[in-house]
Amino acid sequence: MNPPGAPDPFLDNLGRIYGTFIGGLLAIVGTLAILEQLGLPDQIIGYVFVFVTLAIYAGIGIAARTMRVSQYYVAGRQVPAVYNGMATAADWMSGASFVGMAGTLYVLGYDGLAYVIGWTGGFVLVAVLIAPFLRKFGAFTVPDFLGARFGGNLARMIGILVLFACSFTYVVAQIYATGLIASRFLGFAFETAVYVGLGGILLCSMLGGMRAVTWTQVAQYLVLILAYLLPVAILSAQEFGFPLAQATYGGVLQRIAELEQQMLASGLADPATLVPHLQPFTTLDPLNFFALIGCLMIGTASLPHILMRYFTAASVRDARRSVAWTLLFVAILYVTAPAYAAFAKLEVYQNVIGAGLDALPQWIYTYGKLGLVDICGQSAAAADAVRDACSAQPGNTGVLRLPDLAIDRDVIVIAMPEIAGLPYVIAGLVAAGGLAASLSTADGLLLAIANALSHDVYYRMVDTRAPASRRLFIARLLLLGAAILAAYVASLRPSDILSMVAWAFSLAAAGLFPALVLGIWWRRCTAAGAICGMIAGFGITFYYLAMTQFGGMEEWYGVKNVSAGLFGIPLGFAVAILVSLVTPAPSRHVQALVLELRKPSGEPVLRDGAS
Predict the structure, then answer these.
(1) What band does 4 get if pLDDT is binned at 50, 70 and 90?
(2) CA distances (Å), 338 to each of 73, 278, 330, in order?
């Protein structure tokens, strides 16, 4: 903990620190691969990967502890653009991208590309419309900007409500993914595993806030990207003699199409239920496909835990450069996800479909015991259970048909090394990568929730003279409370990972995007307009989500609830504009602030979050 203005040894040695980290990680992988060949049990390998990486993250969090407010909330605004991009990519990609995206592409095929397009395209909106200007503003949180721009605590409170709703929904999905991985590789019950993962999350974020989370997320990005690329590189080399899976993806798709025709011809697949991997609009019609893309793009530009990452940049220019680096680091995984899903499907089609019921691979029973693989409508917990379930099926011939097999989409990524028969050390590395992705995003989300409550509610509204020590104590206490509540909700398994994440994007897009864009780009936008727009957009989106998911309401115009923002976003803009036009214009001071905000140079409007 250095005094303000003092040299920071950590910042001065970033290249050496993370170079050593990645070298050590590769050494661990190599050592465990050798020990596996010598007979080291699989369970020990899983424990080593999970606990060693958790210990490293916790160590970074402890080493980066701080009692300085600016360090806790915005990492002292000292994060270089390339590292900020890496940390944001880790914060962004989450368990949904690492665990859920390839699984969704496995199940949906072409239609799953809506997630890839929407999430990557959203960073264009971040770079052009929002991130640099929020950095120029100089706030600590998104509600901080809303409160200052729209002059009062009502806009701030509504911003906090939206932030809490979208961030809490998102963090539940991350803790769910953490529990899924920990239950498989540590052997714990899922309900227990979510709290084990929670411990790692809290060690990374409680002591050092954004400073600790930033440098932990850089390490987590390195782990998750290595874990994601290595399995498909190995499979690509085995199948095509070339380790770049993105380049051999077309060949995999061709083989999948050939196997689909062979399964249909041999009776292993049913023409009525087989969804060709390359056929568009089989699960999502064009309306839902493009609605989902739009909601994910706009949601990307509205998520508070992503936008607050750009508050840590040293300047407006660095904020723009950070977005560019983020997109590069995100794209590395996103262009690999379709190939990952395709290789997984190829392995299942080649090695599992058509196999005798008495000769099924062990991974089916491993994940069947966790309730993640069903055969003939029953959990594949044991060979006897599979035989009994399938013998009751009419026309069963003693071999596994495609309609008989159901794999939970959230298990495809972590199971793929075992599906492909790769060494278990690869499966352990993938588990560590999935854990890194989930932890990094959960850290950022919990920090966004706690910072908004402690800074925007406690400090701005309750005790404006609170000393730094008390403010940070309140922030940590609120972070702990939000984390425990999220872990409890995750233990109830409310939905699949990707659906929960898509809900969060729609809530953020409808509740925050109109107010942020109009607040930055339209001087005439009034406090009343922004407030009414946020209430209308968020309200209709939340209502549609809740009623279609839990209240039995029919979908409006066939729009699925993962695209609920389709109703809230335009309504939020329309209400904000109309109300602004019929209410008195903002003061000259506020209009001058908006003009200053859009200048690419100059000092921040606020200093360390205080006007």
Answers:
(1) very low
(2) 36, 11, 14
Neighbour-count burial of 171, counting CB atoms closer than 10 A to its CB (0-12 exposed, 13-18 middle, 19+ buried): buried
Amino acid at 476: R
Q: Rounded to the nearest 10 degrees, what angle do helices 42-63 and 14-37 cross at?
A: 170
**Which amino acid would we find at residue 598?**
R
pLDDT tens sequence across 311-357: 778 787 888 888 889 989 988 988 898 999 899 999 999 989 998 88
373 φ, ψ to 5°?
-135, 125
Greater confidence (211 vs 325) lies with 325
- What is the torsional sign of CA 529, 534, 537, 540? negative
Q: Tell me, what's the pLDDT at 308?
A: 79
What is the spatial distance between Cα 423 and Cα 267, in angstroms, rounded to a whole number? 33
Using CA atoms, how far apart are residues 95 and 439, in angstroms rounded to an integer?
8
- Which tens digit of pLDDT belongs to each residue from 7-38? 566 677 788 888 888 898 899 999 999 999 99
Mean pLDDT of 372-395: 86
The answer to whether the CB of 318 falls within 8 A of the CB of 84 is: yes
Determine phi and psi for 415, rounding to 5 degrees: -90, -15
CA dihedral 587, 590, 591, 592 (to 10 degrees): 120
Chain CA centroid to CA 19, Å: 25
Question: Please, what is the Cα angle at 123 between 610 and 541, to 5 degrees?
Answer: 80
| Separation between Cα atoms, residue 142 and residue 529, nearest integer Å | 18
Q: Which helix (H) or strand (E) holds 10?
A: helix 9-12
Angstrom CA distances, 76 to 91, 310, 444, 461, stand at: 18, 12, 16, 24
pTM confidence score: 0.82
Q: Tell me the one-letter amino acid at 508.
A: A
Three-state DSSP state, 373: strand
- The per-type count for the chain, helices as H runs and strands as E runs, is 26, 3
Residue pair 173/95 in contact by the 8 Å Cβ criterion:
yes
CA distance 422 to 566: 43
- CA distance linking residue 239 with residue 245, whole number of Å: 10
The CA-atom distances, in angstroms, between 364 and each of 101, 256, 401, 435, 446 are: 21, 21, 14, 22, 35
270-301 pLDDT per residue, tens = 887 787 888 889 888 999 999 999 999 999 99
CB atoms inside a 10 Å sphere around CB 419: 24
First-last CA distance in the chain:
26
Provide the pLDDT for residue 203.
62
Which pLDDT band holds residue 1 (cuts at 50, 70, 90)? Answer: very low
d(CA 226, CA 344): 18
Residue with tokens 């659906």: 499
What percent of the chain clears pLDDT 90, i.e. is strictly above it? 29
